[in-house]
Design brief:
Blueprint: H1 11-37, H2 44-64, H3 85-95, E1 100-103, E2 114-117, H4 118-137, H5 141-185
Antiparallel strand pairs: 1-2
Length: 186
C-alpha cells in the first residue's frame, strides 16, 4: 500500500492518487444515493457520518499533496453537471428535524454562527465530487485531481467538515445520553 501523504512525483503517482480519490468519491456518491432512497433506515445518521468521514480522508490526501497544476492551466469542459435535487430532497426527508444546524463558517475569520442544512452540505459536496469524477471517467485523471483539490480547498472541504461535525455531534449525543441513562438506572 502506498503512503497517502507521499508527494506525487510522476504521472504514475498522480494516476494512483486519482484512482484512490475516485474510489472514495464513487463510494460517497453511492452511499448518499442509498441513504436518500431510505436504505439506511434507523442507521441513516451513522451511515452518513461514515460516508462523510471517508470522503474527508480523500480530501486530506488531496490537501497533503503538492498542488495539482494543469499543463495548459485550463480545465476541459465535461458537460452539464447532473441534477442532484432528488438526492437533496431524499436526504432532507430522512434527516427531518436534524437537517438544520449552526456552524461557524471559518473559525479564523468569522465570529457569527451561520445556519446550515445537512442535506444541502452533503449534496454540495457530491456536486463538486461528481464534477471531478466526470473528468476521471473521461480518462483525464490530472484534471480530476485538479478539480477535486481546488474545490476541496475552495468549497467542498468546508461543507464536508461542517457536516461531519453536525453528524458527529448527533451520534455522540445520542450514544452518550444512552450511556448516561443506563448509568443512572443501574
Amino acid at each position: 500500500m502506498s503512503d497517502p501523504t507521499s508527494q506525487p512525483n510522476s504521472q504514475k503517482d498522480w494516476n494512483a492518487l486519482a484512482e484512490r480519490v475516485a474510489r472514495h468519491v464513487d463510494n460517497y456518491l453511492n452511499g448518499l444515493e442509498a441513504v436518500a432512497r431510505g436504505d439506511g433506515g434507523v442507521h441513516t445518521v451513522p451511515l452518513l457520518l461514515l460516508e462523510v468521514s471517508q470522503v474527508i480522508l480523500a480530501g486530506a490526501q488531496l490537501g497533503a499533496s503538492a498542488d495539482v497544476i494543469l499543463p495548459d492551466n485550463w480545465e476541459p469542459e465535461v458537460g452539464p453537471d447532473p441534477d442532484l435535487d432528488a438526492i437533496r430532497q431524499g436526504l432532507s426527508e430522512r434527516l427531518d428535524a436534524l437537517d438544520e444546524y449552526v456552524e461557524v463558517f471559518d473559525p479564523y475569520k468569522d465570529t457569527e454562527p451561520t445556519s446550515y442544512r445537512l442535506s444541502d452540505d452533503l449534496v454540495d459536496v457530491a456536486s463538486d465530487l461528481v464534477h471531478g469524477l466526470r473528468h476521471y471517467q473521461q480518462e483525464r485523471p490530472l484534471e480530476a485531481l485538479w478539480w477535486w483539490q481546488y474545490s476541496y480547498f475552495n468549497h467542498w472541504g468546508n461543507h464536508a467538515g461542517a457536516a461531519l461535525r453536525a453528524l458527529h455531534a448527533f451520534v455522540a449525543n445520542a450514544r452518550l445520553n444512552v450511556a448516561t441513562e443506563a448509568a443512572t438506572t443501574a
